[in-house]
Amino acid sequence: MSFPAGHKALPVHDPNWSKLPLTTSYIYIFTGLGLCFTPFRHSLKEKSTEARRRREGNTMARGLKKHLKRLNAPSHWMLDKLGGAFAPKPSSGPHKSRECLPLILILRNRLKYALTYREVIAILMQRHILVDGKVRTDKTYPSGFMDVVSIPKTNENFRLLYDTKGRFRLHSVRDEEAKFKLCKVRSVQFGQKGIPYLNTYDGRTIRYPDPLIKANDTVKLDLESNKITDFIKFDVGNVVMVTGGRNRGRVGVIKNREKHKGSFETIHIQDATGHEFATRMGNVFTIGKGTKPWVSLPKGKGIKLSIIEEARKRLATQAGAAA
């Protein structure tokens, strides 16, 4: 039996078969059962591996994703499942993407001032929308809890609050209440040259605060001057709103504060009907001193009803309308 020039027959058990030149496209292996042709493409595999490494080494990072699927959007946006494949992806801003409401959803889905995406852009580019006293033209700007959305053309002001089901509500407020907002203090620190400053939940940095203000307290911020006019201590007996967890949107008074070393602090809250519940400290936002909140609350006043109570209330409303 003859082989092409440069090739030779090796038994299968011979360890030298792998030492052939990489340029060899095929190795003919002679077995007792006959001559078989085994493709062994070392050179092609090596070339493809080198090419892949070269491509990966020259490519740059792709960055953040610019799209958001509708099924992956937060449920409190209340988007239609069949309304399209994609949802507006929030821009970078003062609130987390899962805890915000983009301006396009406020104008198109909630207030119904626009029917389409292009109409929203037209409204924003005319500089008609203000958030916390500043004009915003980004259609996906992330407005969040306690933000004040103003429309001077219609003389309307709305404050973003939660209902007892954890969904955002555009609560209409008067002009006097639209001039301020409440901000939760995240931390109090000292900067260069010993200058004290505090950080708020919406990314603000305020220098030279009152020395009595500590973390988890709430400050009343004037939106025109960006200065602190008053503050609320995070103490037992003050009214709070829950901004996270399964009790989001509920309003009550702090009854007890449990400290657990190495774990989350637990806050026990009692609402106006006497029901008590507990949540983590990070989910609590102080909104007033004593039992009186500093901001007006949406319908329901933060009191969560059971399924039976909701049904009875609905039947009573229907009976009153029929009469």
TrEMBL record:
InterPro entries: KOW, Rib_uL2_dom2, Ribosomal_eS4, Ribosomal_eS4_C, Ribosomal_eS4_central_region, Ribosomal_eS4_central_sf, Ribosomal_eS4_KOW, Ribosomal_eS4_N. It comes from the Eukaryota. Keywords: Ribonucleoprotein, Ribosomal protein, RNA-binding, rRNA-binding. GO terms for cellular component: cytosolic small ribosomal subunit. Residues 233-260 form the KOW domain. It holds the Pfam family RS4NT. Residues 101-165 form the RNA-binding S4 domain. One of its GO terms (biological process) is translation. One of its GO terms (molecular function) is structural constituent of ribosome. PANTHER family: 30S/40S RIBOSOMAL PROTEIN S4, SMALL RIBOSOMAL SUBUNIT PROTEIN ES4. Belongs to the eukaryotic ribosomal protein eS4 family. This is 40S ribosomal protein like. It comes from Actinidia chinensis var. chinensis.
